Amino acid sequence: MESLKGKVVVITGANQGIGKGLALAFAAAGCRLAICARNQIKLAAVADEISNLGVDVLGIPTDVSDEMAVKSFFQQIDEKYSRIDILVNNAGAFDGGRLDEVSLDAWNNVVGACLTGAFLCSREAFTRMKDTGGGRILNIGSISAQRPRENSAPYASAKFGVWGLTQATAIDGRPFGIACSCLHPGNVGVERRQESDTESDQEPMMATETIVEAAMAMLSVPSHVNFLEAIVLPNDQLYLGRG
User: Fold this and answer.
1) Which 3 state secondary structure label does DSSP give 74?
2) What residues are annotated to the active site?
3) 175 pLDDT tier (thresholds 50, 70, 90)
4) Which of 36, 90, 107, 177 could be cross-linked to 62 through a Cys-Cys bond (beta carbons 3.0 to 4.6 Å apart)?
């Protein structure tokens, strides 16, 4: 496994859950960080926590579905670090309901956060990585990218798209030393699920740290290797043949 020390790492949706866990793990590994999320207060708290560890961090409130906001975020990364080694597209949103009851606003919110945001951030990172010797992009997908559950058309469609974007990015990035991979988590006990009483949020759960460990392993393989895809889920979660 390769050391990540000194790498410049960009993480979207870093204000809580998997994103926050990844930010703290990269900080512990000696990386320099640029993090963003829509929630300014929570993002500032995470940035302060990382800064108090003596780690360089740039925290910019950003809606990753907004092209100009994304461009501004990456321009500020340029000014502080002048390079990007790793991008983690973790930002997302969930909304659903039976297909005939899903509003266009709900659809656009989920697809914007999960898929459009991953595209916009990957495009910005790709542009920089190809001129600095390559890098890695990790997309946080979902097992819903392969086996959707009921009442989740926006989320399943967005995550199917993320897996397609991953493969397209990996192909386009090969000549430039840019590797792109996708981590598909099953149920993770993030804050949203802990506060929910819906049936799906009472299913078997993994700790956030489990997904963070998997992501760090995928990003630490030798530079000539791409850990293209991983699926991590609780043993007893309904997935295979869940229908």
Assistant:
1) helix
2) 155
3) very high
4) 36
